[in-house]
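re: ur question from earlier - yeah i can do the single chain one, its not a big deal. heres the input i used so u can compare w yours
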Amino acid sequence: MDERPLPAPTAETKPYWDMAREHKLGLPRCRSCGLSHFYPRPFCPHCGARELEWIETAGTGTVYTFTINRRAANPAMKERLPYAVAVVELAEGPRVLTNIVDSDLEQLAIGAAVEVVFERVSDEITLPQFRLRTGGGSR
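and the output i got, formated as tokens:
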């Protein structure tokens, strides 16, 4: 059993976690202005409308910023050292906070191309994370 602290889905985030369980990275998109956003909330942060829909993303993006942790933030992360925490700018525009996994962390750089991967950690939670795209380069 995974001992990491796991997210607790809410009414607003349930579609996100449902899509992740199907290995799809989803975003809320406003039906009024057409813009996507992250984190999930009951209204559009761009125009204030409440008519939202969920879309499947391309699952690609670039590293906006990152840090490599060489000390565990909690005991459950000790076995994962070193690990990278990054903000990824998705192809659709929104930025997400995530981990970079299955990658040579010494090759991690701002602007590096990444793609989504999924880690099933429980029956309810599958974590979308990212890895460096091979041959992807930067923007």
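The two ends are 38 Å apart (CA to CA). not sure if urs matches, ping me
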